[in-house]
């Protein structure tokens, strides 16, 4: 009797642990990488003595910052995504299959052929694929 209860308890714990660890991933293809404007960096020419004496020339160098923006195509949706780690973005291989999942407000993406590390991305836009709606409507017409 005790052995049966112990086995049942162990099976329940193992099932919960497996369900918690396994994440359902969707698959997509990285079509391309673009450079998108993501702000400006200003470097001012102010000096301490110029501030105190009021002779500072207020010269500023402004430089546009570019961020990586990837296009990820799935069966039904085209995502435009940017890495959340702006200081150390990883260059992803274009044309490769990627696995992803949406977790709250971010996309977690991994490349099974290179490494299994999950990286976080921000979804900039989502567009439904036009050809997938054509496929769905034609499959509806074929059903009796």
What does this structure look like?
The chain is an alpha+beta fold. 27% of the residues lie in helices and 47% in strands. It has 3 helices and 6 strands. The protein has a 6-stranded antiparallel barrel with strand order 1-2-3-6-5-4. The longest helix is centred in the first third of the chain and has 20 residues, at 2-21. The model is unreliable at 17-21 (pLDDT under 50).
Supply the helix-strand structural class. Answer: alpha+beta
Terminal-residue CA separation: 55 Å
Q: How many individual β-strands? A: 6
Query: How many distinct helices?
Result: 3
Q: What gyration radius follows from the Cα positions, in whole Å?
A: 25 Å
Could you say which overall geometry the principal axes of the C-alpha atoms support? elongated
Low-pLDDT runs: 17-21
Considering DSSP H and I runs of 4 or more, what fraction of the residues is helical?
25-40%
Please provide the ordered H/E string of secondary-structure elements: HEHEEEEEH
Provide mean pLDDT, rounded: 78
Query: What's the main sheet like?
Result: 6 strands, antiparallel, barrel
Measured by DSSP, the beta-strand proportion falls in over 45%
Strand order of the largest sheet: 1-2-3-6-5-4
